Amino acid sequence: MAVITAPTARAAELLPTTELAQALDLYLAQLNLTTDTDTREKYPSLYAAGQQITFDIDPGARKAGKFFRIVAVRQGRVESVHAFIERATGKVVKAAGWAAPAKSTAKATKGELLSRYTLADIEPLLAAVSVPSAQYGRYLYQS
Q1: d(CA 46, CA 26)
Q2: Which of 75, 64, 54, 67 is nearest to 103 (CA)?
């Protein structure tokens, strides 16, 4: 079971409940830990040069809007979108690009987003981001 602590101010500002904000912080912490370990083992020269990637809430995220981005950051610069979080439900959705989450038309009804993971059920998400190479986002794809 994951240890729950007080959420960061940024997470609490963007999500409707304390539980979702706490889960977001746990998700980011585990993703960053896994990425750090993977980078240190597979790319020691990048790690030594401070070139490792970290994941965080998009600095430009606003309180308005249905989603906010989880971005990859290297040396203080945002490089790409890793995932989108649906603000109301906590669904973690892969990105179609910088501006929008991916939508699946094969299995979803019109307008519905398919998501394998949600912040409301954090344990499967933490297990998914605990595997090496989680930073590449394979866990976000539907099987």
Answers
A1: 25
A2: 67
